[in-house]
Amino acid sequence: MEIPYTVKERKDTGLYNAKLGIWLFLASEVMLFGALFSAYILLRVGATPGTWPHGLLNVPLGTLNTIVLIISSVTVVMAWASLKMKQFGKWRMYQGATLVCALIFLVIKSFEYNDKLTHYEVISKVGDKYQVHDGHLISEDKDKVVLEPSAHRIYTSRAIALGFGPVAEVAHGKADHDPKAHADHAPAKHELVTIQRSTIERMQNYAPKHHAYLAIYFTLTGLHALHVIGGALVMGYLFGPGAKMWKTDPERFTNRIEVSGLFWHFVDLVWIFLFPILYLL
Predict the structure, then answer these.
(1) Quick one: which of 193, 191, 133, 197 has its CA closest to 164?
(2) Which of 31, 64, 134, 170 is most buried, most CB within 10 Å of its CB?
(3) pLDDT at residue 199, rounded to an integer
(4) Which domains can be identified in the chain, with CATH numbers?
(5) Dihedral sign (CA 114, 117, 123, 126)
(6) What's residue 5's pLDDT?
(7) Is the Cβ–Cβ distance between 275 and 66 less than 8 Å?
(8) Do 123 and 202 touch, CB atoms closer than 8 A?
(9) Closest to 6 (Cα-Cα) out of 189, 255, 224, 220
(10) How far apart are alpha carbons 165 and 51 in whole angstroms?
(11) The whole model's pTM is what?
């Protein structure tokens, strides 16, 4: 049985089947990410004063990833345009460049994830005195843990309850932050801190369970990364075995490239919103 409207446009919608399908799918994706962005806004607005981090993410790496995705948006359009001009060789070049951009994006994101997962908050107690250490794990064994203090950190409710981190005195409905509060607890820059394991009461890395900010960060960027992987797999298939259709039905193959490109543009657009909200604001 021959499936209609794989190439020709439907009279009622003005779109061929695959293009209509991708737009319906992207509409559901907008609702999905819209709900997650709304959750981020509510979590941030409702956070205890002084507990929501700023400057925790690597802005240069985020900027580089933004540039990579913008370049990939250009190459994916050029790939489709090459097929419209019957230039299969140029299509392969641009499609390959798009796949390389996807790989670069994921590699950079893996470095950012590793940075968070090796970043720890350690609460220790010596006698009746608590200490809160925060930094990247350098080494650990059964006796001690060595951290390199980080320039940026998250102040958890537990740390603030113990007297560490920014203090917010709420009067007349307005929070007054003291950025110099508890400055005596901050270690010297790049000075390694050694903590005896016998004194550690809590040691937790910057995984999603550590803080609401990290939970929404990993959810949003992780879901976006899955979309990058999914889009790359589809484009990789079309670049490889799927390219055989060019010889038998070039117009339908061109339509498939257009549909995959529309999805890729959506992935890029989501990151354009993620970057300023998570990295800059």
Answers:
(1) 133
(2) 134
(3) 92
(4) 29-116+213-280 (1.20.120.80), 119-205 (no CATH)
(5) negative
(6) 66
(7) yes
(8) yes
(9) 255
(10) 9
(11) 0.85
3-class state of residue 55 by DSSP: coil
Residues with Cβ within 8 Å of residue 26, at least 6 apart in sequence:
262, 263, 266
Burial class, 153, CB count within 10 angstroms (exposed 0-12 / middle 13-18 / buried 19+): buried
CB 35 within 8 A of CB 43: no
The pair of structure tokens assigned to 279 is: 């990295």
* AA identity, residue 22: I
Read off the tokens for 121: 């908050």
Q: How far is CA 139 from the centre of its chain?
A: 27
| 275 and 34 Cβ atoms separated by less than 8 Å | no
Sign (positive/negative) of CA torsion 153, 156, 158, 162?
A: positive
Of residues 68, 90, 134, the one with CA closest to residue 271? 68
Ordered alpha helix ranges (H), 6-120: 17-45, 59-84, 88-117
**Position of tokens 């490889």?**
240
Instruction: Give the integer Cα–Cα distance in Å for 179 and 166.
Output: 6
Contact of 177 with 168, CB cutoff 8 Å: yes
| Tokens 């509409």, located at residue | 27
At 226, list the tokens: 């899955």
Element housing 178 (H / E): strand 174-178
Give per-10-residue mean pLDDT for the chain (281 aa): 68 80 94 94 86 88 96 96 95 97 97 94 90 91 91 84 63 39 49 91 92 94 97 96 92 93 96 94 84
